Amino acid sequence: MEIQELLFHLIRYECCETSAELDSKTIQPLLPKLYALSQAHDVVHLVSDALVKLGMLGEDKLSQNFKRQKMVAVLRYERINFELERICQVLETGQIPFIPLKGAVLRSYYPEAWMRTSCDIDVLVAKEHLEDAARILTKQLEYRNAGKGSHDISMFSPGGVHVELHYELIEDGISKKAGKVLSTVWDQSHPREGSVYYHELTDEVFYFYHVAHMAKHVMLGGCGIRSFLDLWLMDHRLEYNIARREKLLADGELLTFARVTRKTADVWFSEEVPDEIIFRMQEYILQGGIYGTKHNRIVVGRTRQRGQIHYALGRIFLPYNVIKYHYPILQKYKWLLPFMELRRWGKLLFTGGFHRSIQELNKSKELSPQQIAEMDSLLQALDLQG
User: Fold this and answer.
1) Predicted TM-score of the model (pTM)
2) Left if phi > 0, otherwise alpha if psi is -120 to 50, otherwise beta: which for 267?
3) Chain segment 2-12, per-residue pLDDT in tens
4) Under DSSP, is residue 195 helix (H, G, I), strand (E, B) or coil?
5) Closest C-alpha to 170, from 379, 296, 331, 334
6) Over the stretch 228-278, which tens digit does the pLDDT of each residue have?
7) Residue 120 is inside which H or E element, if any?
8) Residue 122 φ/ψ, nearest 5 degrees
9) What does each C-alpha distance from 214 to 78, 221, 283 come to in angstroms?
């Protein structure tokens, strides 16, 4: 049995209500590699719990590491859930409309909430309420404001839990039409039952946002198994209208990508038969880990820019539809673009980013025509050529 086959088998058993028929003698020699792969995708806690249920962990050091990761996941969940409840309470009391995002919603689809790990809390607030929301968290919960970014304000609880107060759900670099869909989320939300200011997205908008976020990470070098498991659960554990989901995905130019990712998830978690595209997608995702790799990001960037010169120019001059989110003033005064590019270069020079960019440009020169051709073929299959 290959490591990835074993990994998916255990996740299916843990989260998808399937049986597990495994031979302990066959599994034991694979545990070190299984631990490494599952840790790279932040699913080692799921694998650990499955192995414990199957009686395949002992008292050796590796078994203890597996068991420890489950305890870490439970602790992470308790800390984040405690802070999320506090945030929801003070925003509701403060009459600030807000929408919890990502893991805060997704974990309710898992058999147990601790199974869906996350490293932070993501909450959307309307731009006109952003400063008030940050002020309430600072004053009432003693949060530390770490500064405003291109899409959010980064904050930290006294206990160190990271919170991102989003005021934009635009996913850079996907497509203008995807951004247009995500710009209307407040029109596609409704108050949660029993609340006035706690809002929830409609199923199709939340699904679209998840797919758009996956597409963004695929183009940044990797996505991670966990996002595919999220997608599988949304497809198999919820009641939904497929026509509405696909209409929105088509409007945002993400329908092809969504269909391939759904098929990939079904191969992994429903044991469907893969085709050539799924094999290529699987290879790319598994080698990238949860956050992707620099190599993957360079190959994608070079391929989408159609040549070394265009890739270099794209690294030097960020496109307006990307840089405008780094410097929001450009959305009002586009003529400031050259000055913001200069400001960005200065920042790169003083933070080490310039050196990293030069390294990436040099590495992009080393890519073979075959590597670029294979990536171009995958991006075409995903309809993410740019």
Assistant:
1) 0.88
2) alpha
3) 899 999 999 99
4) coil
5) 331
6) 999 999 999 999 999 999 999 999 999 999 999 999 999 999 999 999 999
7) strand 120-125
8) -115, 125
9) 26, 11, 16
For residue 111, the SS3 value is coil
Give the range among 12-16, 88-92, 373-377 with minimum mean pLDDT: 373-377
What is the CA 96 to chain-centroid distance, rounded? 26
Residue 276 neighbours by CB under 8 Å, 6+ apart? none
**Residue 341: helix, strand or coil by DSSP?**
helix
List C-alpha distances in Å: 147 to 29, 76, 326, 351. Answer: 47, 24, 13, 17
101 phi and psi angles, rounded to 5 deg:
-125, 170
- As given in the structure block, the two tokens for residue 331 are 């959305």
As a dihedral over the C-alpha atoms of residue 247, residue 209, residue 261, residue 113, rounded to 10 degrees, the angle is -130
Q: What does the block give as tokens for 39? A: 């840790």
Q: What count of Cα atoms within 13 Å lies in the side-chain half-sphere of residue 30?
A: 20
Of the candidates 228, 213, 220, which has an alpha carbon nearest to the alpha carbon of residue 282? 228
**Are 300 and 314 within 8 A, CB to CB?**
no
* Structure tokens given for 254: 């993400």
- Write down the H helix ranges in the chain: 3-15, 24-27, 31-40, 44-53, 61-93, 103-106, 130-141, 176-182, 203-219, 225-236, 242-251, 255-269, 276-288, 294-304, 308-316, 320-326, 337-351, 353-365, 369-382
The bridge status of strand 152-156 relative to strand 162-166 is: antiparallel
Residue found under tokens 């299984």 = 34
Question: What Rg value do the Cα atoms of the chain yield, rounded?
Answer: 22
Half-sphere exposure of 245 (CA within 13 A, CB side): 20
Residue entry with tokens 């199709």:
204
Give the length of the chain. Answer: 386
Centre a 10 Å sphere on the Cβ of residue 249 and count the other Cβ atoms it contains. 22
